[in-house]
Write a structure and sequence with these properties.
Blueprint: H1 12-31, E1 35-36, E2 42-44, H2 45-51, H3 54-58, E3 62-64, E4 70-73, H4 78-88, E5 96-105, E6 117-126, H5 131-147, E7 155-161, H6 162-171, H7 179-188, H8 194-201, H9 205-214, H10 219-229, E8 237-239, E9 253-259, E10 268-272, H11 276-280, E11 289-295, H12 296-305, H13 307-320, E12 325-329, H14 335-347, E13 352-353, H15 361-370, E14 375-379, E15 385-390, E16 396-400, H16 404-410
Parallel strand pairs: 1-5, 7-8, 12-13, 12-14
Antiparallel strand pairs: 2-4, 3-4, 5-6, 6-11, 7-9, 9-10, 10-11, 14-15, 15-16
The structure holds histidyl-adenosine monophosphate.
Length: 418
């Protein structure tokens, strides 16, 4: 039996890598004053059918449940967030700055950087129309990636403005019911042959390609870059009007993050969606909002590609499953005494391991090294004394059993366990 296509097993190292990514996501989001929330993984299919746009609807993992409800595993969080805000907004002071970490499911063609499940960090600011929020959000996205050791040589945030394109479509007198289709074509243009985009755009192809070639300008985007420049982050962003985003609900600023080398799929994407909450509440609640999501798959690939970021990742993986103390049971008669002390050490918060059944002493020391233990405690002929071995310096000392807890503490004064 194998995993389904596009699904992953998380072996211990993969779990540790995932924990590392989640920990950084959480830490930097908190640094910006964001608070954590979450929603259900299963939602009514209509939530996405109405709000996410054609591309995501084609990729839904949907089924009919035993109560005959049409349901979908969540492909993204934004429609859930809009529903939650519409229902609970009175309970919170605005603007809200919320983040969430969870698993998402899209029935996509499996390819490099795109699976059928992935984890996302979502960060959203709700209830703030001022441009300051757009700058703050993009700065957060940049700082999260910097938190992993990535630099402006490694990634770039391509920023754009949907209003630039909706103004253009209005000028071209294109009926509004065709706007989404045209925006989707522009969004896909970077991934499709030019002829295909040309065919789909028809009469609009000429003016659109001319904008692509000349690069569109927008005063709004210049202000955004200036705002990031004031924080020393201008080197991380490029204005690129080709970005419009595939999701239907965006209304203003949109952005996507790519590796500088341009080898990988998008690392993150987001933008303003000022009408979604109103649409979901049938006009009852109207609130501006903006946010982005960053996936774990492409980010993980990028971190493994760079020497510095890989070293940071590997050391975090190693640290997570490290133990503090390994109890070597050299004489089986001492097992009960050892277990009593192991219990006391674990109660104090130390990570302690030992062999569950009789093992050769050399093998036990090997186990201690493999688990990166700081010290080994040897229970053998010396009892009621215990031999303590510092595994880094190889120094050994004999300690009376009853003084062990205090003596052990000295080895952990730098980072005492909590
Ligand atoms: P999205 O661009 O569809 O945006 O997804 C955000 C990120 O999730 C992508 O840049 C990518 O890293 C990751 N991702 C998406 N699909 C997959 C996949 N099949 N496999 C691996 N990674 C994937 C959204 O989902 C918006 N809801 C973001 C947002 C939040 N907008 C406002 N607030």
């Amino acid at each position: 039996m194998q995993t389904l296509p596009g699904f992953r097993d998380f072996l211990p190292e993969d779990c540790a890598a995932r924990n590392y990514i989640f920990a950084r996501w959480r830490e930097i989001s908190h640094r910006y004053g964001f608070v954590e929330w979450d929603g259900p993984v299963l939602e009514p299919t209509d939530l996405y059918r109405k709000k996410s746009g054609a591309e995501i609807v084609d990729q839904l993992f949907n089924f009919t449940d035993k109560g005959e409800r049409e349901v979908s595993l969540r492909p993204e969080l934004t429609p859930t967030l809009a529903r939650v805000i519409a229902a609970h907004e009175r309970a919170f002071k605005k603007p809200l700055k919320w983040f969430s970490i969870g698993q998402f499911f899209r029935y996509e063609k499996q390819q490099r950087g795109r699976l059928r499940e992935h984890y996302q960090l979502n960060c959203d600011i709700i209830g703030e129309s001022d441009f300051a929020a757009d700058i703050e959000l993009i700065a957060l996205c940049i700082d999260i990636l910097r938190g992993f050791g990535l630099t402006e040589k490694d990634f770039v945030v391509r920023i754009s403005d949907r209003e630039f394109w909706t103004d253009f479509l209005r000028q071209q007198e294109l009926p509004t019911d065709r706007w989404e289709e045209v925006l989707q074509t522009i969004d896909k243009s970077g991934r499709e042959p030019r002829e295909k985009t040309e065919e789909k755009l028809g009469a609009l192809a000429g003016p659109v390609f001319s904008i692509f070639d000349k690069g569109g300008r927008s005063g709004k985007l210049d202000r955004l870059v200036d705002g990031l420049g004031a924080r020393g982050l201008a080197g991380f962003v490029d204005v690129d009007v080709k970005i419009v985003r595939g999701l239907a609900y965006y209304t203003g600023t949109v952005f996507e993050v790519f590796d500088r080398a341009g080898k990988l799929r998008a690392i993150a994407g987001g933008g303003r969606y000022d009408n979604l909450i109103s649409q979901l509440s049938d006009g009852a609640i109207s609130m501006p909002a903006l946010g982005f999501a960053m996936g774990d798959v492409v980010l993980g690939e990028l971190l493994r590609e760079r020497d510095a970021t890989r070293a940071q990742l590997e050391s975090a993986i190693k640290d997570q499953n490290k133990i503090d103390i390994y109890a070597v049971i050299a004489k089986e008669e001492r097992r009960a005494d050892a277990l009593e002390q192991i219990q006391a050490l674990r109660d104090r918060g130390y990570r302690v391991d030992y062999p569950l059944t009789s093992e050769k002493v050399g093998k036990q020391f090997q186990n201690a090294e493999n688990a990166s233990a700081r010290i080994a405690l040897l229970y053998g002929d010396e009892w009621p004394q215990v031999k303590v071995k510092n595994l880094a310096t190889r120094e050994e000392s004999l300690i009376p059993g009853e003084a062990l807890l205090d003596s052990v503490a000295k080895f952990f004064t730098v980072s005492a366990p909590v």
